[in-house]
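Model it.
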Amino acid sequence: MAEAARRARRSPEPSPEDSARGLDRIIHERARLALVSALAVHARLTHNELKQLLRLTDGNLSVHARRLEEAGYVLCHKSFEGRVPRTEYTLTASGRRALEGYLAHMEALIRAMRERT
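Modeled.
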């Protein structure tokens, strides 16, 4: 009887639905995932390069980049070339770890779904 009670108290294996809830919500958004992924491949990209690559508006890119910067995933470097402002973004070590963790989580979720079918 005690063994049955112990088994009932153990939490079951998390379902894929529960695992999906554990995703990093900052990176999980499409534009932010694309931005972090682009910076994982390129050491540094300008605002205009990212805007063209990701097909985002200036405002949309700025909002997503700011959210990633607040999370510590991206660094924003502002400077001038002559009188023209230049904004460059780089991925931080924390951002790279977050992306790697996100990808590992997604791979585990995919594996779990495939095992269920």
